[in-house]
Design brief:
The complex is a heterotrimer of chains A (109), B (344) and C (626). With 109 residues, chain A is mostly helical. In chain A, 43% of the residues lie in helices and 0% in strands. Chain A has one domain. Chain A has helices spanning 21-30, 42-46, 57-65, 69-74, 84-88, 95-106. Chain C is mostly helical and 626 residues long. Chain C has helices at residues 2-7, 13-37, 40-49, 53-68, 71-76, 78-105, 127-130, 133-158, 173-200, 206-216, 223-240, 248-260, 272-279, 285-289, 303-312, 315-324, 330-334, 341-353, 397-409, 427-431, 435-452, 462-471, 482-491, 520-529, 556-570, 583-592, 600-606, 614-625; strands at residues 385-388, 414-416, 456-459, 478-481, 503-506, 531-533, 577-580, 596-599. In chain C, the strands form 2 sheets. Chain C has a 4-stranded parallel β-sheet with strand order 2-1-3-4. Chain C has a 4-stranded parallel β-sheet with strand order 6-5-7-8. Classes of the chains: A mainly alpha (109), B alpha/beta (344), C mainly alpha (626).
């Protein structure tokens, strides 16, 4: 990148070149279903915690694919594992276990 | 020549195929389970993309079936393969020796009450696309009793796409193909009916693939101000005033949305006809994972089944639009005709 | 011959003694280990249980019924029960009578561990022992009983279905050694005792055999080798016992003491859980019980293998099975030993998930939902009931709507706590092993319920119901599932139902049936409305719907197979409707069922009889107005 002699505010663009594909690959190996999401939003809409927080497993999956792990966690940290999203998911993704697996693999604090 | 072709199903596919086969000089026997011809088309009001009255299409179809023998309120009781023809016994006691059998059993509308979270049959103001068409059709009939589920002056109306389609939980993974266009069409129509109402469409993907369908979408946005929300509805609640509280996610903004509606229309999708499947099982026709009959291949021989002398036309091999169905009916007639040459 | 009777010792007792001493040391160390790992307060509970006569009575009764007579198996499968009871009780009686014989005839040998075991080798028939012919008879009798059991056990290996088991456990190598030893012990004992019966005396079994043998084996050279063989096999059995499933013999009794003292599983491998693990007899009854085993490929996830891997410390397999289990509790309900494998699985999950990150700080911002004024009518005199639908019920609005109708019909004022969304009850988190996180929800929900100020809490979801009853501190509030509540209303005459000719089958949801033992209320309601038909498996043996939140990793395809299997058992008697009492079961069944599925509340509203004529209800109102 050219040096203009001054700094810019960091780009808000999602940089797929920098996305961590390796860790995501580990998640896919453990939870192949994560690839099945068609982003319909049923999970977010039915979420019990979603009334009060930004909880959304759909968004978490999207952010992980885009290499934004820290933000992804924001979408699942409030999950109460009530299982409604698993019941409504039209692609039969085991979202409940997915939440646990993401926490396990990304080990985010 | 005296060759019999039996056509099972008196919907658009069956009617058109019968007419064509009759024209070609075959002896056509059409069997219809219900008491009227026309199938789902007879219950529909207008057709996408430009609102052609369903009745005019049906009238054209019926006008061409002169000479075709048809039995209403009749079911197929058994089908047996003889040497090269099929012995078909009907519920009215008639036995037909057919050289070819054309299955045009069509589809069943997905029973929307199976998606209990949408409240069909539970809440007062939830209807399906078919209910709405009957409502439109009944507007011309002054004597008809208006559907009590449709309020007189609804202020807010919602359409839920993909009810019973693209849903593995309910056993239908497939896309029903016609609901997107139907929803957009009906949204425009209801806006015409109730100009003061806000209309919302909850969709996952808008599959406006056919000629002029995109124009219909544009018209819905530009001329009718239909609000399209990209998100599947997850649940519907009823408040104390019997209004419907719909919950979805606006996936484009990444936020859950909630809206209170006076009327909710569920776009019930297509599944293979149960009655058709019964006939299929008599001749052990193969069905695919989606429940529809399997064609011999997926590109070249769409009208042929895995059995010689058994043919398909229309939605019994998967969701189809009406023009597609009519094309298939004609193609099926030709396929049957080519097959019949073997007998000469 | 004389010298053996005088000395009371022969070298052949050595194998037995080695086995016995080894086992005793092993058991002692195990006992100390378990006691060490039991938390302090629990140890105190255990100590106190030994001075509580009620618990002592219960201990004795349970040991007799469960360990010796296997009443639990008898009740389900008589022949299988006989097989277990004959060996266990027969062996027990032989040991007891053996000791009585020693105490009566050779009191000088009291205290020699091996002496009662080999009594007939060291004794001679004389006037003194002849008076004990009755005991000789008993000894032969129980030996025969055991032998019949062993014969059945051998037959079961070949054809298990004959004893009512579709599948049996695959034995490990150690189990096999133990098994063959066990099979050999008693035939060898019979042989050995028969050979010496000419000298020691015997009864209806050993005496005739002695005569028979005397006809073609006229010398005594074979006596000692048979006793050696008997002792060696017995010694080997005792020696390998700690590494086989036969550890359940001593452990089961110990487990009963611990359980009756009120101990619970806290850790997956240590303390109480260890006693449970060693008490598993690997009988394989859980194989047929597990709903996952509709498919043969899932056999490996059965509780019996879970326990086996726990014994072997195979963490990968332990976690795999723990995460797969539906937690429907059927294996626990049918387990003859009562091993609470679900509790162990939960504790195991906890080791993995409890430390995972979560953040429920938003709970602080939640304020109690104000009661909807329209729900509480001024004219009603009863104190309002608090209704909590639960998360899942929001996906089955038919249930909450029916409940509202029922409250209205019975003229009961109510408050709907989570009409506009609440928080989860915490049980799903607990099932997943996140105990710490669950506590936060329990705390918040307790606060919300207390703030609502009602004395009856009605729940529609059995998952919530179980956790509210067991893990919440809601003293002073009656907690009822809606089946119980509706039944109450009917009994009090507040609801009247029309009798119809419809036939219903009732599906026992796992958490309501096995989980909370509510079996009869829903059936009583249904009997008032129509004809209740039986399912192929019901009550304790009801099959999970497949939708259970208990399993973490079971995929959807496998779940569907369970759902279909369960539906098949339910429609066994061709009912018009399937009735359940759990939103999750309803949702799961509805997608697959050929028959209409309804919640019991929905079925009740369909058959409600208008209690009062419109005019009569007017007079009621004026009454309230006074």
């Amino acid at each position: 990148m050219a040096d203009f002699g001054y700094s810019l505010t960091p780009s808000s663009r999602i940089d797929l070149n920098k996305a961590d594909r390796e860790t995501f690959g580990k998640l896919v190996k453990l939870e192949p279903d994560v690839l099945k999401c068609m982003a319909c939003g049923s999970c977010t809409a039915s979420c019990t915690a979603g009334v009060y927080t930004r909880t959304s497993i759909r968004s978490a999956i999207l952010y992980l694919q885009n290499g934004r792990e820290k933000e992804a966690l924001e979408f699942i940290k409030g999950c109460m594992l009530c299982g409604k999203c698993t019941i409504v998911c039209p692609r039969a993704i085991n979202t409940r276990q997915l939440v646990l697996s993401i926490c396990k693999i990304y080990n985010l604090k | 020549m005296n060759k019999n072709v039996i056509v099972i199903g008196g919907g658009p596919a069956g009617l058109e195929a019968s007419a064509q086969l009759q024209n070609m000089g075959y002896n056509v026997i059409l069997v219809e389970r219900t008491h009227e011809l026309g199938g789902h088309l007879a219950k529909w009001d207008r057709l996408f993309p430009d609102g052609v009255p369903a009745k005019s299409v049906l009238d054209s179809l019926l006008a061409n079936i002169g000479g075709v023998k048809y039995f209403l309120g009749t079911e197929v009781q058994s089908v047996n393969l003889l040497e090269k023809s099929y012995n078909v016994i009907l519920s009215n006691g008639i036995t037909i020796l057919a050289n070819a059998v054309l299955i045009a059993s069509g589809f069943d509308l997905f029973p929307a009450e199976k998606k209990e979270e949408y409240g069909y049959g539970i809440y007062d103001h939830v209807i399906t696309n078919a209910d709405l068409e009957s409502f439109f059709a009944s507007r011309k009939d002054k004597q008809a009793v208006p559907d009590p589920r449709i309020p007189l002056q609804p202020q807010k109306i919602g359409f839920v796409h993909c009810v019973g389609s693209r849903d593995e939980k309910i056993g239908n993974r497939h896309c029903s193909k016609v609901c997107c266009a139907t929803a957009v069409k009906q949204a425009c129509e209801i806006k015409e009916e109730f100009p003061q109402a806000d209309v919302y469409c909850f969709y996952m993907d808008l599959r406006m693939f056919g000629r002029n369908y995109e124009d219909l979408y544009l018209k819905a946005q530009k001329d009718y101000g239909i609000r399209f929300i990209r998100g599947r509805v997850s649940e519907v609640a009823e408040d104390i005033d019997k209004k419907l509280v719909v919950k979805a996610e606006d996936t484009l903004s990444g936020k859950p949305v909630k809206v209170t509606l006076d009327l909710l229309v569920l776009m019930a999708g297509m599944k293979n006809s149960g009655a058709g499947q019964q006939v299929g099982s008599m001749i052990s026709l193969e069905t695919a994972e989606d429940g529809f009959f399997s064609c011999r291949d997926s590109v070249y021989s769409l009208q042929k089944s895995n059995k010689n002398g058994i043919f398909f036309a229309g939605a019994c091999t998967g969701p189809k639009t009406l023009p597609d169905t009519l094309h298939e009916a004609r193609a099926a007639a030709l396929t049957v005709h080519n097959y019949m040459k073997n007998f000469e | 011959m004389k010298e053996r009777i005088l000395s009371g010792y022969d070298n052949f007792v050595l194998p037995f003694m080695i086995g016995m001493v080894f086992l005793c040391i092993y058991l002692l160390i195990g006992l100390i280990r378990i006691l060490k790992h039991i938390p302090g307060p629990d140890r105190k509970k255990l100590a106190l249980s030994f001075i509580n006569p009620r618990i002592i009575y219960k201990d004795c009764r349970d040991i007799l019924c469960d360990c010796l007579l296997h009443v639990k198996i008898f009740k389900r499968k008589a022949l299988l029960g006989y097989m277990h009871a004959s060996i266990a009780f027969g062996w027990f009686m032989i040991i007891v009578i053996g000791h009585i014989e020693v105490a009566l005839y050779t009191p000088q040998r009291n205290g020699l561990i091996y002496y009662p075991v080999f009594f007939r080798y060291f004794t001679m028939e004389n006037n003194h022992t002849l008076r004990g012919a009755f005991f000789f008879f008993l000894m032969d009798f129980f030996l025969l009983v055991i032998l019949s059991g062993i014969a059945l056990a051998m037959y079961k290996r070949v054809r298990s279905i004959a004893l009512g088991m579709r599948r049996t456990t695959k034995p490990s190598l150690a189990d096999r050694i133990g098994l063959y030893c066990l099979w050999a012990i008693f035939p060898l004992r019979l042989l050995a005792e028969s050979f010496t019966a000419g000298i020691s005396g015997g009864s209806f079994l050993t005496k005739p055999m002695n005569f028979l043998f005397a006809n073609f084996l006229s010398n005594d050279y074979h006596i000692l080798p048979t006793w050696w063989a008997y002792s060696t096999v017995l010694g080997t059995f005792l020696l390998v016992m700690p590494f086989t499933r036969y550890m359940h013999i001593p452990t089961e009794a110990f487990l009963i003491l611990l359980r009756n003292a009120g101990l619970k599983v806290t850790r997956p491998r240590k303390g109480f859980a260890e006693a449970e693990i060693y008490a598993c007899s690997s009988c394989g009854i859980c194989l047929d019980a597990c709903p996952m085993n509709m498919q043969k490929k899932n056999l490996k996830y059965s509780s019996v293998y879970f326990i086996r891997f726990l014994r072997r410390h195979n963490t990968r397999k332990i976690n795999e099975i723990a995460d797969k289990c539906l937690m429907c509790g059927k294996c626990v309900a049918l387990c003859p030993v009562g091993v609470e494998s679900c509790a162990i699985k939960r504790a195991q999950r906890s080791t993995v998930t409890d430390g995972l990150y979560y953040d429920y700080s938003y709970l602080k911002t939640l304020s109690p939902v104000p009661a909807n004024p329209a729900d509480v009518s001024e004219t009603m005199t009863d104190k309002p009931v608090l209704y909590y639908a639960g998360c899942m019920t929001h996906l089955t609005p038919g249930i909450s709507k029916a409940m509202k109708e029922i409250f209205r019909a019975a003229e009961i004022p109510y408050r709907f706590l989570d009409e506009n969304g609440g928080i989860c009850c915490g049980r799903p988190l607990m099932l997943a092993g996140k105990e710490k996180a669950a506590r936060e929800l329990v705390r918040k929900n307790t606060e919300l319920i207390r703030a609502a100020g009602c004395d009856t809490l009605v729940l529609s979801c059995p998952i919530c119901f179980k956790v509210f009853r067991e893990e919440y501190d809601l003293q002073g509030i009656t907690i009822l599932h809606h089946t119980q509540y509706i039944e109450n209303l009917i009994r009090k005459g507040k609801l009247k139902l029309n009798a119809t000719s419809r036939s219903y089958v009732y599906h026992d949801p796992c958490e309501l049936g096995r989980g909370a033992k509510v079996y009869e209320e829903p059936r009583r309601i249904l009997e008032r409305m129509g004809r209740l038909v039986k399912a192929e498996k019901e009550k304790e043996e009801s099959i999970c719907c497949g939708g259970s939140l208990g399993s973490l990793t079971l995929n959807y395809e496998d779940r569907i197979k369970i759902t279909r299997g369960s539906l098949k058992a339910l429609t066994y008697n061709h009912p018009d409707n399937i009735i359940t009492a759990c939103p999750l079961c309803l949702k799961t069944f509805a997608a697959q069922s050929p028959v209409k599925v309804m919640d019991i509340a929905q079925a009740v509203t369909e058959n409600l009889e208008a209690i009062r004529e419109p005019a009569a209800s007017g007079t009621e109102k004026t009454q309230f107005g006074n």
